[in-house]
Design goal:
The chain is of the alpha/beta class and 206 residues long. The protein has a single domain, classed as Rossmann fold (3-Layer(aba) Sandwich). 28% of the residues lie in helices and 21% in strands.
Length: 206
């Protein structure tokens, strides 16, 4: 079966007023005009990974995607999200006390891969294909693909629905070919549409 996971599509990354927005990321239009409509039409539940990047974050001075703020809001409609994971570093392994809680102080990031894998196993079976899209291909999408592949899953990247941090088609293609291809294979929009409409291998709303 095909299971879909969106990564870091929060306003701080996707909207012009966001702290990490880049106008060169063409994937955002593809996601809004193609991917989300496909998923809504197919009535699928997807997994979503979002970030709580409040300080403290040793080794990373960025402070963004603060819970309770505009920048923390996701582009993914709630009706699509069957399960959500909140991380606090680029790797999905990292969580913290009070993660995603707006009115409580965040703890230090700590790696708990077993918790992430418990979340993954709650809706993905060992023989499923996992399709990732979102931001960014050279950072959080890459880390997520690695983590999932390490468990033996077949991982695909919906390539036109991802971008590198700086954006640009050439950067996306080179990153996919030279780096990400070690852990995942690319998928086109047409292949994605077929996976959702052309067969029954899609997780339906429960």
């Amino acid at each position: 079966m095909v299971k879909v996971i969106a990564v870091d599509l929060q306003y701080d990354f996707t909207r012009p007023e966001g702290k990490h927005f880049k106008s060169s990321r063409t994937c955002l239009e593809t996601i809004k005009l193609n991917v989300i409509p496909i998923l809504l039409h197919a009535e699928v539940d997807i997994g979503e990974i979002i970030s709580d990047y409040r300080q403290p974050r040793p080794g990373d001075l960025d402070d963004s995607c603060n819970p309770g703020t505009w920048g923390y809001t996701s582009e993914i409609p709630d009706v699509l999200v069957g399960s959500r994971w909140v991380k606090c570093m680029n790797s999905p392994f990292f969580t913290r006390d009070n993660i995603g809680v707006a009115d409580k102080p965040p703890g230090l990031p700590r790696a708990f891969p077993e918790l992430f894998y418990d979340w993954l196993a709650s809706f993905v079976k060992p023989d499923d294909t996992v399709v990732l899209f979102g931001l960014t291909l050279d950072c959080c999408v890459l880390c997520t693909a690695q983590a999932i592949r390490f468990k033996g899953y077949d991982v695909r990247i919906l390539l036109d629905a991802t971008d590198t941090y700086d954006g640009g088609e050439e950067s996306r293609r080179q990153t996919m070919d030279l780096v990400v291809s070690n852990w995942a294979k690319p998928m086109t929009i047409d292949e994605f549409r077929l996976a959702n409409f052309g067969n029954t291998n899609v997780q339906q709303h429960q």
